[in-house]
Specification:
339 residues, alpha/beta, 2 domains, six-stranded parallel β-sheet, 9 helices
Amino acid sequence: MGERNLGAAVIGLKMGSGHLRGYASNPKTTVVAICDPDKDLLERRREEYGPRMAVTDYRELLNEPDIHIVSVASPDYFHAEQCVSFLKAGKDVLCEKPLTLGLEEALGIVQAVRETGRRFMVGQVCRYAPGFALAKRLVDRGEIGDLYLVESEYAHSYREARGAGDWRVDPRREPFIGGGCHAVDLLRWVAGDPVEAFAYANHKCLTDWPMNDCTMAVYRFPNEVIGKVMVSVGCVRPYTMRSVFYGTEGTIVCDNQSSSIQMCSRKNFGSEPSFADFPVEIAHHNVTAEIAEFVECISGDKPIPTNELEGARTVAACLAAVESARSGKPERVARIESV
Ligand SMILES: NC(=O)c1ccc[n+]([C@@H]2O[C@H](COP(=O)([O-])OP(=O)(O)OC[C@H]3O[C@@H](n4cnc5c(N)ncnc54)[C@H](O)[C@@H]3O)[C@@H](O)[C@H]2O)c1
């Protein structure tokens, strides 16, 4: 179908610019509205994408009948209110990660999706990074046998990424949830829902920020799989999400920045273990692919892989680690039931 029959609106136009590109390049969608309180940015994006409406307050868009899909890409604190408002106004919503910073707000979104019957996706975009997607396929195909250990790190310096108006510099915005949700979601995708977390955290890099900047968490996953997630947002190094999946028959090393992933499996080495390279495209924030899938799910009435429950479960897994770093004890991950 080549017809552009779905109208899209994007709220928050920095990360949201990736969403605008995704809708503008999708044959089934048209950008009809944009929203950002920054008037200069709003004007620049209006000139670039030519939407029918450009507003500074999202509420002006709630009753517009030609808006079918809304991307919420505003700072995390606004996700719950904006998502619930658009769902109740009858729109399908794609919300940037993290779904929310707390569980109550996440459950509010889950309930709003249930009540309205609208379609919802959370932007856990790492599932669309070609390297991670290939790693997941290899694990699912049994290429490395039975998983026993999974690890992922989110090492991303926030020194120059305080956010518009410094919104990231806020004790509510735990880096383990805000950015670490990428690594936690990746492990959940590959290994299932963790049941318990134990974590240590420290605060030695971003000393003028009000929260810990490094956390190391160990998770207990189903089937006795152990998981490790490291999050450092004060690190001095290029961004990486290096991840390793260990199975009884092999090991996969991958990230979202490199042009290949590596697998060592009993099948592919002779006398000495060695890694084989599998080339992949580099597309670490593949929002265009994420939007393409959302649009396909909406127009083909298919289930959405990263739905509101997935978003809430990732928030719950992150919160257990944050709580453990505070309490000094292992903490259970809250279970989020499907219905
Ligand atoms: N998927 C990813 O890898 C990824 C990467 C970066 C950011 N994000 C997420 O995207 C969201 C935005 O992050 P960012 O990096 O663009 O932050 P940013 O600070 O660079 O930009 C935020 C934008 O939102 C606007 N804004 C502020 N309050 C608003 C409101 N009430 N309504 C609408 N717009 C508002 C600001 O004016 C600014 O233009 C966050 O939830 C963040 O976690 C995701």
